[in-house]
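call fold(seq) -> tokens
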Amino acid sequence: MRIALSKFPSQLLLLGLALSLIAPGCRKRPGSITPLPGQRAGLVGNEGPSGLESGKINSEPVATGGGATAEFNLEDMIQDRAALAAQTVHFDFDSSVVKASEKSRVDAVAAALKGDQAAKLLIEGHCDERGTEEYNRSLGERRALALRESLANMGVDPMRIKTLSFGEDKPVSPGHDESSWKQNRRGEFILLHPK
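ret:
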């Protein structure tokens, strides 16, 4: 039995509309590594997918990185959080651009890595509480990648660097004012050595 499609144009239109509204919501789960989009990665205006499922509240960090990613496992490393704690870089609101005033901190991290060839580095990107969970994960990712790119431009092998984004999940200041937000918009450096 053949049905003439011309007799049911309104039903076809409704079916097409329903499918177009449902299809964008059907996403497959992305991998944990996000590719570095290019030479200007980490700069504001170079927005990309955050690597998170929309609406998913999750306190797990997002692994970032790009192109060829570092080939080491964090579980095989000793994390020295104190070694580079004084070199934490702070960012402006809604920005992943490394400010000129923070360049000396990045220089110090580059010097530490160049002085210890066995060392590797973990960069954590963090945000203040404003913005959605997904947006802040993406912004934390861009911040970590911007720091990675800065170090690479200073001659540090990017294969020695892993990046993670915690978004707004790990504030250093629990307040809900500009003073606290300013402290929470940061990139942290963790020195790594093999166990």
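The chain has one domain: 30-194.
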